[in-house]
Amino acid sequence: MKELFAFPSEFTRQGAPPRWGLPVVVALIALAVACGGTAAGDGGATSADAGSSEQQAPGSPRLGPDGTPIRVERVTVGGVPISVEIADTHALRERGLMNRDSLPADYGMLFVYPDEMIRSFWMRNTRIPLDIAFIDRNGSIINIEQMQAQTDDNTLSAGPAMYALEMNLGWFEAHDVRPGDRLEF
Predict the structure, then answer these.
(1) In the chain, what are the domain boundaries?
(2) Cα 104 from Cα 4, distance rounded (Å)
(3) In the chain, which residue ranges form alpha helices assigned H by DSSP?
(4) Phi, psi (rounded to 5 degrees) for 34
(5) What is the pLDDT of residues 134-157, one digit of tens each?
(6) CATH architecture of 56-184
(7) pTM of the model
(8) What is the number of other CB atoms lying within 10 angstroms of the CB of residue 165?
(9) Phi, psi at residue 97, to the nearest 5°?
(10) Whole-angstrom Cα distance, residue 177 to residue 3?
């Protein structure tokens, strides 16, 4: 069996690991866990990545399924400025807003696709009710639908869409944003 760690001979007793080895390893594992990692070495992923309902520390970026920070951009929809998380990879689009307990005001998720086609969304493992606007390649809202939490009901775009914007339930009506209004980057 190949050794993963080799200690210099002056630190070993007849081939055995040094006496301080186990306490140091235990201390390092405890430190890693206290800093948000796990003993299994998850690369420092936060509990938010695992779908936990815990809030993130202020200023810390939400991490995607691959551990990279999720991009947040400012856009306008119907002339109203909002912040959106950009879901532009298959993994980010697949996870969407699952396992979250809330969204800040004027904050949502923009799903970006490489092509236009009829889109279908459901709310499995999504704890908060949402509005969704389906948007064509030119940035024009095709239709807006309401989606209830924790359902497998399909919500479809009324035409080919390249983007979908999820916001808190009632957001579009409260801001008088309607089909035909535009999403601007």
Answers:
(1) 1-44, 56-184
(2) 47
(3) 21-34, 90-95, 171-174
(4) -65, -30
(5) 999 999 999 999 999 999 999 999
(6) Sandwich (2.60)
(7) 0.68
(8) 25
(9) -105, 25
(10) 63
